[in-house]
Design brief:
This protein has 146 residues and is mainly beta. The protein is built from 2 helices and 12 strands. The radius of gyration is 14 Å and the shape is globular.
């Protein structure tokens, strides 16, 4: 299940859209135990891959300027990519803003979900990542429940 942090939910209710709050952020793929929610610390999870614009390691990602059917997608023209920094099996992901510490927080704006081959928030062709190998995210859609 897609989980938004307390800070992101509060911001969306008062000061801006999910797009406005999360544009410029990064998608991080992890192995290990899935935190109970987006406010929880990463614990012993291992970062496997940092996804950035064009895989440059520093430029944040953006979402489309329009939403359809209660969902927003990645900007189509943008390449979301990264090189795996560790070898392991992806179990979950977080979309975070610059400077997110990964610690327990109700002030960090985050979105978290599970990764799987089917029936999950992040569908991947393989969950096994090898350090140094390239990784691409071709499609990304974040939807709010009806």
């Amino acid at each position: 299940m897609l989980k938004a942090s307390t800070a992101l939910r509060n911001a969306m209710l008062v000061t801006g859209s999910l797009k406005a709050r999360m544009d410029g952020g990064f998608l991080k793929l992890y192995s290990g135990a899935v935190p109970s929610d987006a406010d929880a610390a990463l614990g012993s999870a291992v970062l496997l891959c940092l996804i950035t614009k064009d895989g440059d390691g520093t430029t944040g990602l953006t979402f489309a300027t329009t939403a359809t059917g209660g969902a927003v997608t990645k900007t189509v023209a943008e390449v979301w990519a990264g090189a795996n920094v560790a070898t392991g099996t992806v179990s979950f992901w977080r979309f975070v803003k610059t400077g997110d510490t990964g610690g327990a927080s109700t002030t960090e704006e985050r979105v978290q979900g599970q990764a799987a081959l089917t029936g999950s928030e992040l569908l991947m062709t393989s969950l096994s990542l090898t350090s140094g190998a390239p990784n691409h995210i071709d499609y990304c859609t974040l939807a709010l429940p009806a």
